[in-house]
């Protein structure tokens, strides 16, 4: 008897899930996500510092937190959405080069004691990969938006040193595009999802002018601009509003 009751309850939940998913399609959803960013490739140069330039290595893996807003379904199961995510600060290796790009500079590369964080904001949509009536909903997500790396560092050098960079912070913002592959399980007014994503953006100043009154006008130097692919794994809990 107990076995029959358990089987009956499971079947009841199974057949109710599709109808719940149908109701969700016309509702706005709020989503919280948590996961890990798997780090970055070597970043390279940035000139957005008070003096000189940084040459930065890769950023290690970091915990990720995110929020999202999901709009009602349009077309064949397409779900427009907005997402914001933040990767917590982690150590980043690198050097401070205490002179502007292209100028004669002592062969000095002072190590940084620095941290990097990353936030992203995207607008995009989820596209279903199977019939939306299934309790398990596989999907692909695409989005475009902005990615910003923030850097903070401790003072380099002492007041009596020839080269001194006081503690500070800076950042670099670039356009990005994202692609995610995931699966969501409907649980009444809630939905639990598991997702892996790849984000493509660029980093680096590229070609910059050489600022030197002695040199003729117009010289420049190429510090490089890298295309980077960064990966994240996350779990999300979505609540649909009535």
Give the tags:
mainly beta, 57% strand, 242 residues, single chain, two-stranded antiparallel ribbon
Summed up:
The chain has one helix spanning 2-24; strands at 29-37, 44-46, 53-59, 62-70, 79-97, 110-111, 114-128, 136-153, 168-187, 190-203, 207-209, 220-222, 226-240. With 242 residues, it is mainly beta.
Overview of the molecule:
It is a single chain. The protein has 242 residues and is mainly beta. It has one helix and 13 strands, in the order H-E-E-E-E-E-E-E-E-E-E-E-E-E. The strands form two sheets. The protein has an eight-stranded antiparallel beta barrel with strand order 1-4-5-7-8-9-10-13. The chain has a two-stranded antiparallel sheet with strand order 11-12. The longest helix is centred in the first third of the chain and has 23 residues, at 2-24.
Structural class: mainly beta
- List segments where confidence is low: pLDDT < 50 over at least 5 consecutive residues: 9-23
Tally of strands? 13
Strand order of the largest sheet: 1-4-5-7-8-9-10-13
Topology:
Blueprint: H1 2-24, E1 29-37, E2 44-46, E3 53-59, E4 62-70, E5 79-97, E6 110-111, E7 114-128, E8 136-153, E9 168-187, E10 190-203, E11 207-209, E12 220-222, E13 226-240
Antiparallel strand pairs: 1-4, 1-13, 2-3, 3-5, 4-5, 5-6, 5-7, 7-8, 8-9, 9-10, 10-13, 11-12
């Amino acid at each position: 008897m107990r076995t029959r009751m358990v089987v009956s309850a499971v079947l009841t939940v199974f057949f109710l899930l599709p109808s719940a998913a149908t109701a969700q399609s016309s509702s706005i959803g709020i989503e919280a996500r948590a996961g890990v960013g798997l780090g970055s490739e070597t970043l390279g140069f940035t000139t957005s510092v008070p003096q000189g330039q940084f040459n930065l290595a890769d950023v290690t893996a970091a915990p990720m937190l995110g929020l999202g807003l999901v709009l009602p379904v349009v077309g064949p199961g397409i779900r427009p959405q907005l997402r914001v995510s933040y990767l917590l600060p982690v150590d980043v290796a690198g050097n401070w080069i205490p002179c502007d790009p292209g100028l004669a500079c002592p062969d000095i590369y002072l190590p940084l004691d620095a941290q990097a964080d990353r936030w992203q904001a995207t607008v995009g949509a989820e596209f279903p990969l199977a019939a939306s009536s299934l309790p398990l909903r596989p999907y692909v997500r695409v989005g475009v938006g902005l990615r910003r790396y923030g850097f903070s560092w401790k003072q380099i050098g002492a007041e009596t040193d020839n080269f001194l960079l006081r503690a500070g912070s800076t950042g670099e913002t670039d356009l990005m595009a994202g692609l995610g592959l995931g699966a969501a399980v409907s649980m009444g007014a809630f939905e639990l999802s598991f997702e892996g994503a790849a984000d493509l953006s660029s980093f680096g100043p590229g070609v910059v002018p050489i600022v030197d009154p002695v040199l003729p006008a117009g010289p420049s130097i190429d510090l490089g601009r890298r295309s980077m692919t960064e990966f994240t794994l996350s779990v999300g809990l979505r609540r649909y509003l009535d």
